[in-house]
Amino acid sequence: MKEKYYPWLLLSVTSLGVLLATLNLSTLNVALPEVVTHFHSSEVASNWILLSYMLVNTIFILVFGKIADIFGRRGMYLVGLTEFTIVSFLCGFAPNVWVLIILRALQALGGALIITNTTPLITDAFPAKKLGTGLSINILVASIAQLIGPVVGGFLVYHFGWRWVFWFNVPVGIIGVFWGIFTLRTVPGQAKGEKVDWKGNITAFIGLSGLIFALSEVGVIGWSSLPVLVGLILFVIFTIFFFWVEWHAKFPLIDFSLFHDRPYAMANLATFLNSLARSSVVLLIALFYQVVDLENPFTAGLKVVPITIGVMIGSLIVGTLTTKYSARLLSTLGLFGTCIGMLLLTWKIGIHASLLWIGIGQLLIGIGTGVFQTPNTQSIMLTVPHERRGIANGIRSMLQNMGAVISTALSLMIVTSVLPMHLKKAIYTGAGTHLVSEDTNLIVNGYRVVFLVMFFLTLFAIAASYLRNSNKKSVIKHPI
């Protein structure tokens, strides 16, 4: 295999992994009402069909980032792809909603291995001058998966049933595993002698679980209820304990010394805030059209396509600009586009909402996301030494996923908290619930509040992105 072709062959392997992981999320967003109706799920169980995957994936991204730094990325990537494919097959046979939730958590382990190793593999394989192109293609593939995911998910659910949303992942996974075995080179781990920080992982998992559990319950039973208070207390206690553990750990889960570098710290903060603001938009819009406009899953899937088209456009535009302009300028401009899109959704969402304006709002959010992600990711990966890239990417992915899981829980909590008890489940059951005009108005108001909150979160992301400096050559010197 010629050296000049290897980066592109590697990119074809990682693209299949990204395609698999992204399809799994975007297809289920549209299929959720069908799954909930099939299992007659409660509001809390409905939330956890999505949240179980996101939570486990978020925590284990950091675990696997460190393990990959120690033992090498090829084997970890292939194990993750294989496990993800097998569990996807099993998800389609789930006999009840709680078995499905457990399988989703197991599926998240494979997803974490895929996500953790994809960007470092690309970063190691591509020369610095072409890295921006490689990363933008990687994001473009994810964008294509997001584009076809809601449509494919809606089509499969509408014509074949919800189980095919999971079974559809299987052939992609099988192809990816065999192609990866044939293509990927074995690269030794760069952090030999280091150990996994299990105390940090456990405290982080319990703390974040407490927060997500509280957010998933509060829209149904209120802030003063015992389960919500217990979840919030666990979050506070174990978050404090987590920082104490990390401060004293020899090989910490999060290397806080990396955050001494201002561009690195601000880029990661912008990553978290951007993910927190925009991650739930596809889910919210897909549910909105099924609940308020009584659309079937396939039609609803078509109506969330603009956001992923926007990500594709943004990724294509920015790929060639990363060598000409600073990460601060490109990332901040991207977030500004997302901000305008959020404002449009807040203004235009409603009963019989204009498909054009809702589409333009989604398109702007997508373009802004595509423009933001590539230079921001490149800034993070090139700011750290080679041997710390696995953990640096793990931190970036963890913050992005943490933003996504909190975004999902927070968004659904805001929408359901303004509704009377008899309407709370209607958010998840789609066209299966008959609504009178007063009920619909309440749901629309909840959506407006959500998008307004996301607008302000994007403003904070803009501030974080702008406050980094524009030095693209900064590299942290980390003692080993």
Task: Explain this structure.
The protein folds into two domains: 6-196 and 251-466, Up-down Bundle (Growth Hormone, Chain: A), CATH 1.20.1250; 197-250. The chain contains 19 helices and no strands. It has helices at 6-39, 43-71, 73-91, 97-125, 128-160, 163-167, 169-183, 198-221, 226-248, 262-278, 281-291, 297-303, 305-319, 327-348, 355-382, 389-417, 421-424, 426-429, 437-466. The radius of gyration is 21 Å and the shape is globular. 59% of the residues are buried.
Helix proportion = over 70%
Give me the CATH architecture of the largest domain, please: Up-down Bundle
Question: Order of SSEs, N→C?
Answer: HHHHHHHHHHHHHHHHHHH
Total helices: the number is 19
CATH fold annotation of the largest domain: Growth Hormone, Chain: A
What's the quaternary structure here?
A: single chain
Strand content range:
under 5%
CATH class label of the largest domain: Mainly Alpha
Total tally of structural domains: 2
| Major β-sheet annotation | none
Task: List segments where confidence is low: pLDDT < 50 over at least 5 consecutive residues.
Answer: 471-480
Could you name the CATH homologous superfamily of the largest domain?
Answer: MFS general substrate transporter like domains
- Approximate shape: globular
Could you tell me how far the N terminus lies from the C terminus, measured between alpha carbons in angstroms?
33 Å
Mean pLDDT reading: 82
Number of strand segments? 0
Class computed from helices, strands and strand pairing: mainly alpha
- What is the gyration radius calculated from CA atoms? 21 Å
